[in-house]
Amino acid sequence: MVNINFISSKGVLTKADGLVGETIMECAQKNDIYEIEAECGGGCTCATCHVYIQKEWIEKLEKPTEMEEDMLDFATNVRENSRLSCQIKIDDKLDGLVLETPESQF
Asked: Where does the 2Fe-2S ferredoxin-type domain start and stop, copy by copy (predicted)?
């Protein structure tokens, strides 16, 4: 298990156990992180699993693909540290990852 820390837009921390190989989006769904809607189920076609990665973790993630960057154009309140959680695979180096969820995905 890999510890993933979700901070809601209201500042509430939820610690979740993620499985190596699943995505952050899948972990969020299993742990009732309601601010990650994931309407397309992880197909990278809707941008409703938008999250903000805390700066100290950005370099530990694989770079976003061109497709992910294109989909982020449809997300609300995009920041420099924005990512789509459906595109981030959990591995051991992400143990303790901290990310924030936006108030709205639309």
From this structure: 2-105
